[in-house]
Design a protein that fits this description.
Helix content: 40-55%
CATH superfamily: NAD(P)-binding Rossmann-like Domain
CATH topology: Rossmann fold
Shape: globular
Number of strands: 7
Number of helices: 8
CATH architecture: 3-Layer(aba) Sandwich
CATH class: Alpha Beta
Number of domains: 1
Distance between the termini: 30 Å
Radius of gyration: 17 Å
Strand order of the largest sheet: 3-2-1-4-5-6-7
Largest sheet: 7 strands, parallel
Length: 244
C-alpha cells in the first residue's frame, strides 16, 4: 500500500499472538494502528512501541468488546471523525469442555466475546466506512468454525457464526467498495495453543508443524493492503492443510 496520507487499521484483539503480528505487519505496510485489548496493558504498550519503531502511529484502546455500550463509548466518536480503512477482528477466548459437561457460563462467555463482539465492533464502525465508500474488513475465524472440534462446541459455534455473518455482510457492502473476508487459522503457535500435545497434533497436519502468527498476519496484510482486490466474501484457511 502506498498513499500520501497514512491509512488507519483498527485491530481488535491486538496485544498478543496473531493480533500483535498483524499490527506489526500492517505498520510495515504503512498503516497507522488503533489497537484494542481488554486488560493486557503491558503487552499492548509493547506492541505500540514496536509499531512506533516502524515509523507509524499506534493508539491503544482498552475496553470489553462483549459490552456493546463500552464499544460504542470507545469507538463511535473516533470512527465518525476518522473512519478506519481496515478493520481486523481478531479477538477471541476459549472455554473448552465436552458438550455434555459444558456450563451455560462457558457457552455464554465465548459467544459474547467471539461472536457478539464481532457484531458490536462492526456495527459501530460500519456506517462511517460505508460513507467513505472504501475499506477492508477481515474477520479472524478458526478451522474449528469450519470443521468443528471435540470439546469446543462453543468456540466452533462462535467462529462458524462469524463466517456466516461476514459472508452476509459481504453481500451487503460490496457495492460500496468494502471487501469483507475471513481468515481461518489452524493450529498456530500462540498462548492459546501452548498446552496442546504437539507431536499428536503435528501428525494430523500435512505440513507436520504448527503455524506461526506471522504466517497468518501475512494473509491479513494482503487482504488489507493489496490495491488490486477482487477477493470478497471468502474464507481463507491458514492451516498447513489441516482442513482442505
Amino acid at each position: 500500500m502506498t498513499s500520501s496520507e497514512p491509512l488507519t487499521a483498527l485491530i481488535v484483539g491486538g496485544s498478543r499472538g496473531i493480533g500483535r503480528a498483524t499490527a506489526i505487519r500492517l505498520a510495515e505496510s504503512g498503516f497507522d494502528i488503533w489497537l484494542t485489548y481488554r486488560s493486557s496493558h503491558e503487552a499492548a504498550e509493547r506492541v505500540k512501541a514496536e509499531v512506533e519503531n516502524r515509523g507509524r502511529r499506534c493508539e491503544c484502546l482498552a475496553f470489553d468488546i462483549s459490552d456493546h455500550d463500552a464499544v460504542e463509548a470507545a469507538l463511535r466518536e473516533r470512527v465518525e471523525k476518522t473512519p478506519p480503512y481496515a478493520v481486523v477482528f481478531n479477538a477471541g477466548i476459549t472455554r473448552d469442555n465436552l458438550f455434555v459437561w459444558m456450563t451455560r457460563q462457558e457457552w455464554d462467555a465465548v459467544i459474547r466475546t467471539d461472536l457478539d463482539g464481532f457484531f458490536n465492533v462492526t456495527s459501530t464502525v460500519l456506517f462511517s466506512m460505508l460513507a467513505q465508500k472504501k475499506g477492508r474488513i477481515v474477520a479472524v475465524s478458526s478451522v474449528s468454525g469450519q470443521t468443528g472440534r471435540a470439546g469446543q462446541a462453543n468456540y466452533a459455534a462462535a467462529k462458524a457464526g462469524m463466517i456466516g455473518a461476514a459472508k452476509s455482510l459481504a453481500r451487503e457492502v460490496g457495492k460500496r467498495n468494502i471487501c469483507v473476508n475471513v481468515v481461518a487459522p489452524g493450529v498456530i503457535e500462540t498462548d492459546m495453543t501452548a498446552g496442546m500435545p504437539r507431536e499428536e497434533i503435528n501428525a494430523m497436519i500435512p505440513m507436520q508443524r504448527f503455524g506461526t502468527a506471522e504466517e497468518v498476519a501475512a494473509v491479513i496484510d494482503f487482504l488489507c493492503s493489496e490495491k488490486h482486490m477482487y477477493i470478497h466474501g471468502q474464507v481463507i484457511g491458514v492451516n498447513g492443510g489441516l482442513a482442505m
